[in-house]
């Protein structure tokens, strides 16, 4: 929701809602009590949304005010700023020019980002072949294309979500442990036996389905919540293949690799929605004030599964808190990233060193709570914790990753993690950025490299913590 005095320009989002509902501009103008010319100005971002019009739109389309937030625009502007800082380009446009480009031609901006990604992917390919090219940037190609698609869908897929919820209720999965109940479902419906195969782990395989032999082998030595998630994935593939395929067909993803990754993503989405059915989970989250540990125990799932599911609660008319969710390893590589807020992490560089995610690895298993302010002056509250299993032998090297879940500080009263925090004390708020390359803070003591688009002054008669000053052009 916009803060007091903040102007909301949401033309593209209004046009999108109108098109989804098959409504003409004149028809929507009449429903809102406006002239067609006034609505046309709003849809072309020549006029901002007033609070009254915003309320009418929410009532008419059954969405929350956050639907009209500028989170997508903020994320596009940050990505464009990172890209245009590449030495490939001769000059950095002003923030206003970037903002006008994003608001006026969002589709064209998205295509520009896709083109740049393809360029970086080509650099990686040539670099591997030994060509003299600049150092490649991580996270390009099909993987990012799928992430952008999921982000554009607000990390919510209604048909899959409702199908999983319906299966949960019809089979009464709440009457026993999730792994036990899902195993019984596979035996009763498909006559599939579930066996443990210790050799799978050495092959890097979690489960293997042999349809002809009606046998599902799962790796051993894992917690029951992992087994339950794998069984839910298998059920999705067996019984809801067409439901999982439809969003992928509509996605517009160009490559076969991207569509294959998206199909895996939909299988994972189904599994999470089956273990944590939408309405039951939404009510429980509210009742517990989003206490992640209590929700884990109540539904018999993992910390990561709870956090990821909270980031998907965007059913129109029944939205949960808009969270962002990020999964990263100790080197700062982002493994998953979704945001229902305006929060945006770096796409072509490293993460901010002041973020609480990096504290997690020094104290594995401990929950870290942080209030932070981004460069666009938005304040968030986030929790972070490492997840991973204990080694099974001296030679085992288990993977340790960190999960971050956050939301706007305006939702802090709805979170148990705000207990003991002085939300009014600005000293509690840590300034963070999207990564040094895109961060516009000129006074950060933790800066690793200069920001793009700034000049460098290293000839002054003083020496700071950072050996140069960034100069605004």
From TrEMBL:
The keyword Transcription regulation applies. InterPro entries: Cro/C1-type_HTH (IPR001387), HTH_RamB (IPR026281), IrrE_HExxH (IPR010359), Lambda_DNA-bd_dom_sf (IPR010982), ScfR_C (IPR018653), TransReg_Diox_bact_type (IPR050807). This is DUF2083 domain-containing protein. Keywords: DNA-binding, Transcription, Transcription regulation. PROSITE patterns: HTH_CROC1. It comes from the Bacteria. Signal peptide: none annotated. GO terms for molecular function: DNA binding; DNA-binding transcription factor activity. Residues 14-68 form the HTH cro/C1-type domain. GO terms for cellular component: cytosol. Pfam families: HTH_3, Peptidase_M78, ScfRs. Belongs to the short-chain fatty acyl-CoA assimilation regulator (ScfR) family. CDD domains: HTH_XRE.
